[in-house]
Amino acid sequence: MEWTFTIEELPKIAQSFWAQYGAQQIFTLEGAMGAGKTTFVKALCAAKGVEDTTASPTFSIINQYNYRTNGGVTRNIYHLDLYRLRDEEEAIGAGVEDTLYQEGAICFVEWPDIIQDLLPADTIRLQLTVLPDQRRQLRVS
Hints:
The chain has helices at residues 10-21, 37-48, 88-93, 96-100; strands spanning 2-5, 26-30, 62-68, 74-81, 106-110, 124-130, 136-140.
């Protein structure tokens, strides 16, 4: 699956994304600095009805947001940024493994290279690219 969009089109793209991948729980986000990874997660959180302010987890490493399902159940969305971590051991110490395997939670992981061995086989990989006209391309695999 692939989408090409402007920043203004993100709310519509987020709705389409959830319609296609709403049952999935773990997503990796790859792309250059400034490609829009955090902006994309913000749009996805908004589409799920997250009311908290969403921000980059660059310094906190893990940000947690809550939303309610259609059945009224509170669920968590985690946004992880592993850029500053050195290795898998440091990631485990920061709580990454516990976050990935929390029942019912959705996880978005930026800079996932150091935890490849922790990711389940059904992880969805998202690649964001900035196009020459400043639109973004999202590839899902």
